[in-house]
Design goal:
The protein has 114 residues and is an alpha+beta fold. It has one domain: HIT-like (HIT family, subunit A, 2-Layer Sandwich). The chain is built from 2 helices and 5 strands. The longest helix has 17 residues. The protein is globular, with a radius of gyration of 14 Å.
Amino acid sequence: MASDCLFCKIAAGEIPAKKVYEDANLLAFHDIDPKAPTHVLLIPRRHISSLAAVCGEDAGILAELLCTAPTIAAQLGLANGFRTVINTGPDGGQTVGHLHLHILGGRSMHWPPG
């Protein structure tokens, strides 16, 4: 746990969040500034600062993130589809220095997104 990391504090239960999924390795909760009718963040409990910081030993947790996202989307009723986004670094739109996967849905998504 990074002591100054907002998402580490949420994962540790120090800061409340509206959880939608949790297991030993992952936690999903509603975004406090949603960009779609459904906007959930899926994070690894272990601190990884960003996608740019992952290495070979992180392959398992990355697979868990991607394999769990459809389960959460189904649980949230996103049968017509959903978008997943991982923002990386300041220019990529990352605002919290902890790897997180956005799950967005509940409306038609357009392209390009940004």
